[in-house]
Please model this.
Amino acid sequence: MHKAALLIVFGVLSLVVLIYLSFDGSFSAKSPRGAQSIEIINQWDLPDILEEVSGIAYMPNGKMACVQDEDGIIFIYNLESVSLERKIEFASHGDYEGIALVGTTAYVLRSDGTLFEVINFENDHLKTIEYTLDFSENYNFEGLGYDQRKNRLLLGIKDETDDDFKSIYAFDLETKKIIDEPVYKIYFNHPVFEKLDMKPSNKMLQVSEITIHPDNGKIFILEAVNPKLLILDSLGIPEKLYVFKKKQFPQAEGLTFGPSGELFISNEGRGGSGNILSISIN
Model:
């Protein structure tokens, strides 16, 4: 009887291990269809306060401006010294999802569609201005990128009811107003999405961040739920889709470029340390 019980226990444990491995290491790390491994050049594990890092923007001298899901604070992280240098308070608690830098001004996006302009954000006498982005629907905003060529900010929406396309909106930096109509529409019937092997729907692309390549003007759009990176040409036409493995990108929320075109992606910790990755893509 004792031997039989041991055999049963061994069989159950073997089954658990088999199921665990089939889910690419953990139940929460199941990768989407078509996922591929990405070359990670460098990794920075962030301090506990940035476990829920939700937006990053590259600064001069190897520094990164970061925001997270809970506090109205811009965190300055030094990639070279691997340390958190400074915390800059600009607003109260809230779900902050994106940051973009325009000279000495930082723009931070809250998920409810409130945009914060933090003037002279590194100065002790900074000034914060709030803009409420009025929409007919209550969107969940998660992406914010600076479009230098057109002097505007691009805004991405995580959840949108339309199953035909995903809208990208813009905030004009001269008028300080939202442009009413989407500046880009990403149609889900485009061939670039065929590798997902799924029925066209808004679940194909749930935007977590958006940024623009500083040299060629291409638009990079990140998703965290089923991690992927969509690249649009400078006219907003889909060009290439990378599907990531969850093991490498457990919750990819931040996206930015370095001065030489280096691509950085940040991940929320999901119970562990958040991180910033320097990656290479073909």
Q: What stands out?
A: Residues 169 and 180 are 8 Å apart (CA to CA). Residues 16-28 have pLDDT under 50 and may be disordered.
